[in-house]
Amino acid sequence: MARGLENSGQRFLWVVRNPPEHQSNSAEPDLGSLLPEGFLERTRERGFVVKNWAPQSEVLRHPSIEGFAMHCGWNSALEGIASGVPMICWPLYAEQRMNKVLMVEEMKVGVVMEGYEEELVKAEEVETKVRLVMASDEGEELRQRVMVAKEMAVDALKTGASSDVAFDEFLTDLQKSRTSTEKRAT
Question: Which family does the record claim for this protein (predicted)?
């Protein structure tokens, strides 16, 4: 990931955590042991590495964000869409692979990191996909499609729209179920 980000020449914010095999007594990752030698110095003018955590939805809403590399968890996918940010999909587990299909193949608001299935994504692939999303005509098309999806999501949340109606129906069903359970208990 580090070499691909560096070689892309693009600006980035990267949240780095300890991988499972590097767990230690310290909660903070040792960037010196995880990143290539000199990486932080070579990228300091255009990259920012954060240890452990950043406020993801707040970061995604910032106007300078042009792409979002993610593992395709559902909450992250929704945050990416709601923020209008194209996604670089790198699924790892279970439903993340299905979410990748939705983002890349159906909605066409993201691209996939080739090699993820073999658990070996090369630096060249990271570089290629970062450049594609952030500095190409195809990336601009992704941005336009994700903005359409964002507007659809915003519309669905309005009073009387599909999400509002579905939530009201859920609450009604929940109340009916609760009332039915209480009647059986008495």
Answer: Belongs to the UDP-glycosyltransferase family.
